[in-house]
């Protein structure tokens, strides 16, 4: 069967993203009061309103055209952590009809070179802390060093060419460009971003995202959440509405990632809210920011929820001002959802699901659920159509598992310069997500796990996310990662990598006999045995580690855990031979 979200009015197909976000008052869009800023710099409290943003965008666009001859379809690489001028760079590039590719600021030279060459970038706009990598990557990519522009850094002398200088020069001279209005339908193919994703497998690929896809997703979420619904605004008391002009959202997840790029940097601003821009995640500093800026809305990933539930510093901060929390980018277990909800009982706790290839969100928690169904990623957004494809190729119905395949106005155009990968993932306008899901009759959607991450024990499927969620409910566990490891009889068995919480670490450190660590290990194994069917038991053992490796969006990098498991096996076998 085909699953449908609600209907969606046709999004505008002749606007670029800055024309939509900065220049247009969409019908029923909430109106921001003049004293409510758009962007707030976390460390200093400095803020931008609409007029300052538009002026900076105009000045930078003019200088990019004059100094670097940026033209239609040229590519500008933005290589920076979150910054108050991140959106300014994006929208200035779009004013010229050019394309942004945002790079992970922790990249090394080789990784940045790969992105620069794949997208054929012409200019790099870098944070000063990334200067050495940017310079060397530019050299290896045949980009002149003079084509690296540096963002402002609080408390540091500016590097040249300096973004603020370019903006000032652009504003003091006659505009060097005429912004083009798109023809009807052109926004559906006019590229705005090359955002990198590994897709379901393989090396990172440049996802080609048109302006229409992002605009559509903003409108899909806005309708779904009541932001552009006059009836909802008129009938639901203001204090009960999820999104209100003047609310303040945290901007701690990276803007280079599709989650931060679309939801935070565009949808939150469209919803007439403010964003507190935080360059780098530090848990206790984030708690301070929540209190200092009176933040009401959190957009997070599961590892950050783990910290809220497990970190001893949480109890030292007043979280009563939080009203709405969304968790995305990776599955959040039902156990962890309920733990977190007890911490912030006044807040709505929601989940969403999406990916770069779908220009982010395809599901969110509906307005009818103040606390999303534990473990569910919500319901399909307006305009989304979905198929659940079983392993034999037939279509699943309700309560049947299969691969999620989706389409809608927010779908991207494929992978740039990679026809084979595009053919595998983008099929006749539908996107194969690589995620196994099931849909309940009430519309709740559950992500079982990544198809490639599921392993089989004696033919039975085991989803790592399920076991990880259960392990996080153990009082000594601070974080957990589960993989399948080879076993002669069962094919594979579950192995858990565990980060102990602070209290357990102290007990282990103070125990001179070594018995405490073994006691905890045995307790964790029993904890799973007491609650899970036998094929899900931790027959591969429990290994204690300092950290669970994750990518910037919070997804566990299981390949590193598998490599570590192989090394441990070799060490044990070598020791046995001695």
TrEMBL record:
One of its GO terms (molecular function) is CoA-ligase activity. Pfam families: AMP-binding (PF00501), AMP-binding_C (PF13193). Residues 466-555 form the AMP-binding enzyme C-terminal domain. Residues 35-415 form the AMP-dependent synthetase/ligase domain. It comes from the Eukaryota. PANTHER family: BCDNA.GH02901 (PTHR24096:SF422), LONG-CHAIN-FATTY-ACID--COA LIGASE (PTHR24096). This is 4-coumarate--CoA ligase. The lineage of its organism: Eukaryota, Fungi, Dikarya, Basidiomycota, Agaricomycotina.
């Amino acid at each position: 069967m085909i699953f449908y979200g609600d209907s969606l009015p046709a999004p505008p197909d002749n606007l670029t993203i800055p024309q939509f976000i900065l220049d247009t008052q969409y019908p029923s869009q909430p109106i921001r009061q003049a004293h409510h800023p758009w962007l707030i710099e976390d460390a200093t409290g400095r803020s931008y309103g609409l007029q300052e943003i538009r002026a900076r965008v105009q000045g930078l666009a003019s200088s990019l055209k004059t100094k670097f001859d940026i033209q239609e379809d040229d590519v500008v690489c933005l290589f920076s952590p979150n910054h108050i001028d991140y959106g300014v760079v994006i929208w200035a590039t779009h004013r010229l009809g050019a394309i942004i590719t945002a790079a992970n600021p922790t990249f090394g030279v080789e990784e940045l070179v790969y992105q620069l060459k794949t997208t054929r970038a012409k200019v790099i706009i870098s944070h000063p802390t990334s200067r050495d990598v940017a310079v060397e990557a530019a050299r290896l990519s045949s980009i002149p060093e003079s084509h690296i522009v540096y963002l402002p850094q609080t408390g540091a002398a500016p590097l040249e060419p300096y973004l603020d200088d370019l903006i000032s020069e652009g504003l003091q001279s006659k505009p060097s460009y005429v912004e083009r209005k798109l023809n009807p339908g052109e926004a559906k193919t006019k590229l705005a971003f090359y955002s990198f994703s590994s897709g379901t497998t393989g090396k990172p690929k440049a996802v080609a995202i048109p302006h229409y896809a992002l605009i559509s997703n903003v409108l899909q979420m806005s309708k779904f959440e009541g932001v552009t619904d006059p009836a909802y605004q008129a009938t639901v008391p203001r204090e009960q509405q999820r999104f209100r002009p003047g609310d303040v959202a945290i901007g701690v997840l990276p803007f280079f990632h599709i989650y931060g790029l679309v939801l935070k940097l565009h949808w939150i601003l469209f919803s007439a809210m403010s964003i507190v821009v935080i360059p780098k995640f530090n848990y206790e500093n984030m708690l301070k920011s929540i209190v200092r800026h009176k933040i009401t809305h959190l957009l997070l990933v599961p590892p950050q929820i783990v910290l809220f539930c497990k970190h001893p510093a949480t109890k030292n901060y007043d979280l009563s001002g939080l009203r709405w929390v969304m968790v995305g980018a990776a599955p959040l277990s039902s156990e962890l959802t309920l733990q977190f909800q007890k911490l912030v009982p006044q807040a709505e706790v929601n989940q969403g699901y999406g990916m770069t290839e779908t220009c982010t969100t395809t599901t969110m928690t509906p307005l009818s659920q103040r606390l999303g169904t534990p473990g569910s990623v919500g319901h399909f957004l307006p305009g989304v159509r979905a198929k659940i494809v079983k392993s034999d190729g037939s279509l699943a119905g309700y309560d049947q598992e299969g691969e999620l395949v989706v389409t809608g106005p927010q779908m991207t155009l494929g992978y740039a310069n990679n026809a084979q990968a595009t053919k595998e993932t983008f099929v006749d306008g539908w996107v194969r997500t690589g995620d196994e899901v099931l849909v309940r009759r009430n519309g709740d959607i559950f992500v079982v796990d990544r198809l490639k991450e599921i392993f089989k024990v004696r033919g039975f499927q085991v989803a790592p996310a399920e076991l990880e969620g259960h392990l996080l409910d153990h009082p000594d566990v601070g974080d957990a990662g589960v993989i399948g490891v080879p076993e002669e009889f069962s094919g594979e068995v579950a192995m858990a990598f565990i980060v102990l919480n602070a209290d357990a670490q102290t007990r282990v450190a103070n125990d001179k006999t070594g018995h405490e660590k073994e006691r905890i290990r045995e307790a964790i194994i029993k904890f799973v045995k007491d609650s899970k069917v036998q094929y899900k038991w931790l027959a591969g053992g429990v290994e204690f580690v300092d950290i669970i490796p994750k990518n910037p969006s919070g997804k566990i990098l299981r390949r590193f855990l598998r490599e570590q498991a192989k090394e441990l096996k070799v060490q044990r076998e070598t020791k046995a031979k001695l």
